From TrEMBL:
Keyword vocabulary terms for this entry: Oxidoreductase
Residue span, Alcohol dehydrogenase-like N-terminal domain: 10-143
Domain Alcohol dehydrogenase-like C-terminal: 190-325
The keyword Oxidoreductase belongs to this UniProt entry's keyword annotation: yes
Protein known as: Sorbitol dehydrogenase
Cofactor: Zn(2+)
GO molecular function: oxidoreductase activity
Organism name: Mycobacterium lacus
Domain of life (superkingdom): Bacteria
Classification lineage: Bacteria, Bacillati, Actinomycetota, Actinomycetes, Mycobacteriales
Pfam families for the chain: ADH_N (PF08240), ADH_zinc_N (PF00107)
Amino acid sequence: MPLPSPPEEGLLIEVTANGICGSDRHFVSTDPTVPIVLGHEIVGTITAFGAGHSRRDAAGQPLREGGTVALFPWVPCLRCWGCRRFGPGATTCGNAFVYGVPPEAIGLEPLPQDSGAHTPTLTGGFGKHVVVRPGTYLWRVPDHVPARVASLLDPLAVAVRGVNIAKTPAGVPEEVLTFDATAVILGAGAVGLLTGLVLRHLGIGTIVVSGSRASRLDAARDIGMDVVLDTAELDVIQRREAVMELTGGLGADIVIDAANNAAALGEALGMVRRLGTVVEVGNIVPGNAGISVDPAVDVCQRNVRLLGMSFNPPRSYSEAMAMLSKHPGIPFERLITHAHTFDHLDRALADLAGDAVKVTLTA
């Protein structure tokens, strides 16, 4: 594809790192209505500004050619009902453009095949350049943050948002994010372990992580998770018993399901305490599997808060960038277990299907 000039008020960037998301493995096997370049965890260096660009990032920091930026992959339209009522959050916009994602795969309207506005172009981070559209939120990456670490911005923002929606006013009966709380994370992939790091940074008392792949369980231990449950060794009943024993029979204060498995939601509801909170973030891509839930026993009688989320507002990315750039002691880089150049995307996708935590493409 030809290398275009940057659009007015936009940018052209050369991609230096792009994380491989679990959803990419689903997207790569689909047939989108309009050809696109996949990859939405994008970090790159600015090669050119379009006319009229403010040369400032989302936090007001100055930008320059040759500087590194990380993108918020959603470009909200700012005109639809959701944008007008709720602001530029990801799932509130019904007409958003998303870098590197087929819109129909995430519940948005497909791009029209005959629209000149959607002529195939450099849309995602699996290519070596990206055309950054006007209205894109992006953040300057400080020089001390490696591009591969900055590519964690998107999944870290998911983790930040997953924890933030569980927050309540201090002292209310539903408060679960406390120093003496027990948190359980189902799924030891990148989002699950990043969620563990966010919870640890908040000072949550005890953090339990469950998963099956050896490298992910090792990473969970290395980054300081308190209890690691191997789902290959313990069945769902034994895992629930382990959580109950740990909590004196009460159950976990908060359970965050970051596993791409519908059954995990049922497991989460089974191990949360009365007035506890369950956050569902793992099952983003629709599947054919269902679960059996008794609303009375599983939710109402125990006053369980069940919160679902998919994507995030720019604020989550701003908070995530602050964690990446201002807290060098947090072991983010331990989660990047595999890296490949852009010429070996096939190997990167294969690694993600195997025993890996986070796989990243780097220049």
